[in-house]
Each structure stands twice: as C-alpha cells, then as structure tokens.
C-alpha cells in the first residue's frame, strides 16, 4: 500500500469513527469485529471487548423477545446475501438491546466493501415514539368523541407508556374527592390481586407513591419500594407483585384540581430523566383530558335526572320513575300512594333569613325525608318548594303514618343556619291513592295537590287526604 493509500484508509477510518450514525465493521471472512465507532458505543454501550465478532453482536443485541434471532437473523442473512458493492444498501427495522438493558428501535443497513461488512445503525426510537404518541393522541381523542368507556381510553394511554419503556408497568388511579380515596382507573398489566388491594386507598402524606402524590399534589419518586417508609405497609403485596420502584404524578384538570394519579412501576432507570418526565407529562395530560371529559359527561347526566340543589330526582325523572312504578303496581293490583309536600310560608323564610337559608331548608328537608321513607319509595323535587313522594304497595293507615312522621320529624328537628341559629319550619302534605288502578302520575299529582291545598287552607303543618280517600 502506498503512503497515499494508507492516508486514504486512515482518513476513511477517522470518518467512520466520528460519523454521527452508529457504524459496526466486521471482517467478512473471519467475522472478527474491526470497528465499533463512537456513536455505536454511545448508543449501545458495547465496546470491542464485549463484541469481538459478529456472532457476539447477534447474541447480545438481537436476543430480545421483540427481535428474536428467529425473525431477525434470516432477514439479516438475506440482506447480507443481497448486499453488494454495486447495489444500494437495503435495510430492516428492528429492536436492539443495549448493554444497560434498554431497547432501541433501529433501522439497520449493510454494505460489503473490500472484504468487510459495514453495518449502519440508525436510531429511530425517538422518532417512532413521537409517531406513536401522535397516533395514541388521535386514537384517544376519537375514543373520547365516541364516548368510549373511561377505562378503555386510559388503557390506551397506559399501554403507550409501557411500550415506550419496557419493562415498566403503569396505572391510572382516579381521585374520589368526597371520600379522599383513589379508585382504580386502568392498570391492564399489574396483577389483579394488586389492583384489588390498591382500589380505594386513602390519600395521605405517606401512603405509597400515589396516595402521597395525590395528597401533596406533586410528583413522588420512590426508587426502592422495599426500603421506602411510604411503602412499609404494602411490602408483602409489592414483593408478591414483583414491584421495585414507583414514580407517581398527579393528574390535574385545566383549572389545577386533582383528578387522579399516573404511576410508573419498575421503570428501567431508577431516577427519572428529562425524557421520562416528558413521558409522564404526556401521559398525565392525555389522561386529564379523558377524565375531565368523563366527569363533564357524568355531571350532564346527573343534571338531566337529578335536582342540582337537593340531589333528589328532578320533575322529569320523578315522572319517569313513578310512571314505571304505577304501571307495575296496576298489573299486580297493588295500591300506591302519592304524597305532595310543601314548605309552609317558605316565602317568609326567604324574606326573613335570606335565599341561602331557604336553600338550606330545602336540602335539610330532602335529606331528612329520604332518611325517614320506607324502602322502595321514590321522592322528587317537582317545583321550587314542592316535593312529591310515591309509596308503592301501601295502604291508608301506613301512608298516614309515613306522612305524619315526616311532618313531625321535620318540624321538630329544625336546622342550624350558617350563623349557628336553629331555624324551625313546618310542612303540609296532601295524599291520594291509585287503589291498584292504572293511573297517570300527573292525574295523581293533581289530586294530591288539591289535598295539599286543603291542608294549607285549614291551617298548614298538617296532612290531608284527597276527597274519598
Ligand atoms: N331559597 C329558595 N327559594 C325558592 C326556591 N324555589 C322557589 N323558592 C321560593 O319559594 C317561595 C314560594 O312561595 P309561595 O308559593 O308564596 O308559598 P309559601 O310562601 O311557601 O306559602 P304557602 O305555600 O302558602 O305556605 C317563593 O318565594 C320562591 O321564590 C329555591 O330553589 N330556593
């Protein structure tokens, strides 16, 4: 080799050594490794000592469940066979394992040149992740638009994060504000017994990673579950489930309120990197859209059927429920009673104590009446301060007893106002019966209303029956 040729080879080696793409060069005859360039060593962590020849590289990098020898080797053999100095290199996409156990998605191409095999490895992991995330985002939005179940939508998000960083396992827990608990949203790959045990855990400063993340409304990183105090109470459970680490991020709504938590268990790196944080944020943001949409939907449904102030059935749903009950009762020839209840001098209560206290009276009446009604009774708010109650399968005596006990308990109890005063109020009731006949709700309501009018006319704070009952 002339000096000029030697210089050319050295220049070529230098070019390959510092090329931005990972390059591995093997001797075709001996299969010995000639070069693993800088980019290759940085990407996979392997040096010449780890990969002395082609077989060692295949063993180390291709022995993944995702890229088993069976599927990749024949394709590599094919590209080796097809490779020629005269043909453009053709490539395959696959997963390759790194020395630290992480998995990279790559595009490999091969050229043969002067008795050497040149493998060019292009790392497309980040590119694929972005593509997958865009796909997941659009799938998720489509599912939300089609009103898929919240569990299904959250499962799509969880599976994307798990796909991005094997062998991690993820869960979404939903915040139950009233009970201050976390309920299972989606955790498709965590063991069933673990999910069962976690469903309903309390929110608290030292409760696992999720209970604590929800309590502090900030990310909680537990690198070693076995030794962390937050997890002491769950050691038996986490060991049985094979869980070693858990990062949990609060999922917040657009206005910052807590909606739930997103947890990543057994992440490949013990502490989250910037990329991991971006990943958690991506998942939390998508989960937040899904949960907020679900909550808004439920709230709309609730408003369609229930009275916003008292939580009782509203006029429309009282009519629906009572019509069904009246139909069933007439088929069985059972007697139903319909009661109308109205707060006495409610205008005066509002005028003297204010509208807010008036509202409090209505809530108090609803809550206490429900507690005193027999099983199977239906109660609804059908007007401002007017309530209707349907008692199935009843008779005159027991209905009177129910009505009198409602009237007495409400007037006796009184309620505590915002400024700690005890306010007393009374109610009047009118009653009518279906006598096992086929009756419509509105006709029974008219009769009960007539009886109620009589109760008002004859002094209020009393119960009256419709004529002939
Ligand atoms: N605080 C409050 N008041 C309401 C609500 N809906 C209706 N009202 C009030 O209820 C009052 C009903 O007054 P009236 O129909 O004159 O009856 P009343 O004062 O109870 O008198 P009697 O029924 O004859 O004993 C009105 O002042 C309404 O403004 C509500 O949701 N909250």
Automatic annotation (TrEMBL):
The keyword Nucleotidyltransferase applies. It comes from the Bacteria. Its EC number is 2.7.7.65. Pfam families: GAF_2, GGDEF, PAS_8. Keywords: Nucleotidyltransferase, Transferase. InterPro entries: Diguanylate_Cyclase (IPR050469), GAF (IPR003018), GAF-like_dom_sf (IPR029016), GGDEF_dom (IPR000160), Nucleotide_cyclase (IPR029787), PAS (IPR000014), PAS-like_dom_sf (IPR035965), Rev_trsase/Diguanyl_cyclase (IPR043128). GO terms for molecular function: diguanylate cyclase activity. It catalyses: 2 GTP = 3',3'-c-di-GMP + 2 diphosphate. SUPFAM superfamilies: GAF domain-like, Nucleotide cyclase, PYP-like sensor domain (PAS domain). Residues 334-468 form the GGDEF domain. PANTHER family: DIGUANYLATE CYCLASE DGCM-RELATED (PTHR45138:SF9), REGULATORY COMPONENTS OF SENSORY TRANSDUCTION SYSTEM (PTHR45138). This is diguanylate cyclase.
């Amino acid at each position: 080799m002339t000096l000029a040729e030697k210089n050319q080879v050295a220049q070529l080696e230098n070019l390959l050594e510092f090329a931005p793409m990972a390059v591995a060069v093997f001797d075709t005859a001996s299969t010995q490794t000639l070069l693993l360039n800088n980019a290759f060593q940085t990407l996979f962590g392997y040096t010449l000592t780890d990969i002395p020849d082609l077989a060692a590289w295949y063993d180390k990098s291709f022995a993944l469940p995702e890229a088993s020898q069976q599927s990749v080797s024949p394709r590599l053999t094919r590209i080796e066979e097809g490779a020629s100095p005269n043909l453009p290199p053709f490539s395959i996409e696959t997963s390759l394992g790194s020395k630290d156990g992480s998995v990279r998605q790559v595009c490999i191409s091969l050229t043969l040149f002067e008795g050497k095999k040149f493998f060019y490895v292009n790392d497309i992991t980040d590119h694929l992740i972005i593509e997958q995330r865009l796909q997941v985002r659009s799938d998720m939005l489509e599912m939300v638009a089609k009103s898929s179940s919240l569990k299904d939508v959250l499962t799509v998000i969880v599976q994307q994060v798990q796909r991005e960083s094997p062998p991690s396992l993820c869960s979404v827990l939903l915040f139950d504000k009233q009970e201050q608990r976390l309920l299972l949203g989606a955790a498709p790959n965590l063991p069933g017994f673990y999910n069962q045990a976690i469903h309903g855990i309390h929110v608290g400063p030292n409760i696992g990673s999720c209970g604590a993340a929800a309590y502090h409304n900030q990310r909680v990183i537990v690198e070693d579950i076995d030794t962390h105090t937050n997890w002491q109470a769950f050691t038996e459970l986490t060991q049985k489930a094979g869980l070693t680490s858990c990062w949990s991020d609060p999922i917040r709504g657009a206005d910052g309120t807590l909606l739930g938590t997103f947890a990543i268990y057994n992440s490949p790196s013990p502490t989250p990197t910037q990329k991991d944080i971006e990943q958690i944020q991506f998942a939390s943001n998508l989960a937040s859209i899904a949960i907020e949409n679900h909550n808004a939907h439920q709230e709309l449904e609730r408003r369609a059927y229930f009275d916003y102030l008292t939580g009782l059935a509203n006029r429309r749903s009282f009519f629906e429920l009572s019509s069904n009950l009246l139909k069933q009762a007439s088929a069985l020839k059972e007697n139903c009673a319909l009661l109308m209840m109205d707060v006495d001098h409610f205008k005066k209560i509002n005028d003297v104590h204010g509208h807010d206290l008036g509202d409090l009276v209505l809530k108090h009446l609803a809550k206490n009446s429900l507690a005193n009604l027999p099983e199977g009774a239906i109660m609804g708010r059908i007007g401002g301060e007017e309530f209707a109650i349907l008692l199935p399968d009843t008779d005159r005596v027991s209905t009177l007893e129910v009505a009198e006990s409602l009237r007495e308990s409400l007037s006796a109890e009184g309620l505590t106002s915002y400024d700690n005063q005890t306010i007393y109020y009374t109610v009047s009731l009118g009653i009518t019966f279906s006598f096992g006949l086929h009756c419509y709700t509105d006709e029974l309501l008219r009769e009960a209303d007539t009886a109620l009018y009589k109760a008002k006319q004859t002094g209020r704070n009393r119960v009256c029956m419709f004529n002939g009952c």
